[in-house]
């Protein structure tokens, strides 16, 4: 008899399960997001450790339970940049209104609006 198929290789990632799911959500979101679509960036990190990033995702999910929290990562000048983001807004005005409705903690720490084109 043939041996059972080997399991798929484990994904080699330092990130926790919430961060991995949020990164997968961002990858799927970017495939369909037009360049002129807006979103809100809650956290901006440079070379953040995996534990801290996981805690940011966990806190964002708790603060915004109806939102799909996503995470992007990019290389910038030899550093790893990650961002915790959410939302899909057709106009900057819609994004700014949603920004104004965020919990004060996020507004006070500098959450801001961006366009999808900035992540390409």
For the termini, the CA-CA separation is 49 Å
The overall strand count is 4
Q: Find the structural class using helix and strand composition.
A: alpha+beta
User: What is the tally of helical segments?
Assistant: 4
Characterization of this structure:
With 120 residues, the chain is of the alpha+beta class. It has one domain (17-119): Alpha-Beta Plaits, CATH 3.30.70.1070. The protein has 4 helices and 4 strands. A 4-stranded antiparallel sheet has the order 2-3-1-4. Strand 2 and strand 3 form a beta hairpin. The protein is globular and about 65 Å long. The model has no long low-confidence stretch (mean pLDDT 93).
Index terms:
globular, four-stranded antiparallel beta sheet, alpha+beta, Alpha-Beta Plaits, 4 strands, 4 helices, 120 residues
